[in-house]
Amino acid sequence: MSTRTGATATPKVGSMGRTLRLGVSRIWYELRVYSRRGDSVFFTFLFPILMLSIFAVAFSGMGNLGAAPDSSGGITWAAYYLPGMVAAGMLLSGVQNLGVDIAGEKSDGTLKRLGGSPLPLISYFIGKIGMVLVSAILQVALLLVVARFAFDVELPTDAEKWWLFTWVFLLGVVTSCVLRIALSALPRSGKSATAVVIPIVLLLQFISGVYLQFTMLPEWLQNFAGIFPLKWMAQGMRAVFLPESFAALEQTGGWDLGWVAIVMLIWFVVGLFLCRITFRWIRKDS
Fold first, then answer.
1. pLDDT confidence tier of residue 187, bands split at 50, 70 and 90
2. In sequence order, what are the beta bridge partners of 65?
3. Residue 211 counted as domain residue
4. Could you tell me which of 206, 86, 78 has the C-alpha nearest to residue 154?
5. Is residue 2 part of a domain?
6. Which residues are CB-contacts of 120 (< 8 A; sequence separation ≥ 6)?
7. For the purposes of burial, counting CB atoms within 10 Å of the CB of 86, is it exposed (0-12), middle (13-18) or buried (19 or more)?
8. 3, 72, 93, 259: which has the fewest C-beta neighbours closer than 10 Å?
9. Alpha helix ranges (H) inside 36-120
């Protein structure tokens, strides 16, 4: 009996309705499995909150950003760092969770067993992306609650800002998911997945305006960071949570929301294409 080894194999028989039903059931299965991994839940949910707290406390003695000469007005450091922490959480939810998760499933034979089961590949993807999306929503909700009540950050009150938040958030999380699924072929084992994923995630956070003001970076590094989606996720979230006057601090002096959508959509399409050609139920050399 031959074993199906790749996403390019003949699709399994089944209607689209059945595929979607299986995908939805996989979401709840993946959430149950994820909830049992205490270290992943702790890191994903509390890391952005911890970093926000560190920056808010460390810079609290420097006064508000954008304050008038008499020190009135402006925004707190917690308010300034909130968009970056939201963007970092989006990336962590997709890249960190799926990167380690899928590599581990390859190592322990889970993917090989699923490849020989009636589960369609699309249902598997729906389950993984749905799990990340639900956990990301819960994570960002917790982060916003902490920012509002622990650090007195004023959240947007108009519907237009929340619509902007919604599409940037959803597009950012889904893009992160498909890219990580596409790159799941890189780690050779679950043990090496963390070593592969974490350095990439940290590098992108430091050059994408999450921890440092983006325009503080050299122009060549700003241009390099602009290739990747995290820079645009963070910029889109700054457009949601920061006053309009802070748009002048961006690389082009504006929020460039059209480019935020375009770049993330391009990466989403690239990710889907790479998923098609790189994802394997088992490694070719297995």
1. low
2. 75
3. yes
4. 78
5. no
6. 11, 12, 14, 19, 22
7. buried
8. 72
9. 38-58, 77-91, 97-107, 110-115
In whole angstroms, give the CA distance from residue 83 to residue 209: 10
Coil/strand/helix, residue 158: coil
Evaluate whether residue 231 is within a structural domain.
yes
Domain that residue 244 falls in: 16-61+76-278
Can you tell me which residue has the tokens 């893009």? 175
Half-sphere exposure of 221 (CA within 13 A, CB side): 14
Q: Is the pLDDT of residue 278 over 60?
A: yes
How many CB atoms are closer than 10 A to CB 12? 16
How far is residue 29 from each of residues 80, 165, 229, 285, measured CA to CA in Å? 37, 28, 29, 29
Q: Could you tell me if residue 4 is inside a domain?
A: no
Q: Two tokens at 64?
A: 């508000």
Encode pLDDT of 229-277 as tens digits: 999 999 999 999 999 999 988 999 999 999 999 999 999 999 888 888 8
User: How many domains does one find in the chain?
Assistant: 1
pTM (2 d.p.): 0.85
Alpha carbon separation from 36 to 31, 39, 42, 55, 173 (Å, rounded): 9, 9, 11, 30, 22
User: Is pLDDT of 14 > 70?
Assistant: no
Residue 182 CA to residue 148 CA, distance in Å, equals: 36
Query: Does residue 159 register a pLDDT over 90?
Result: yes
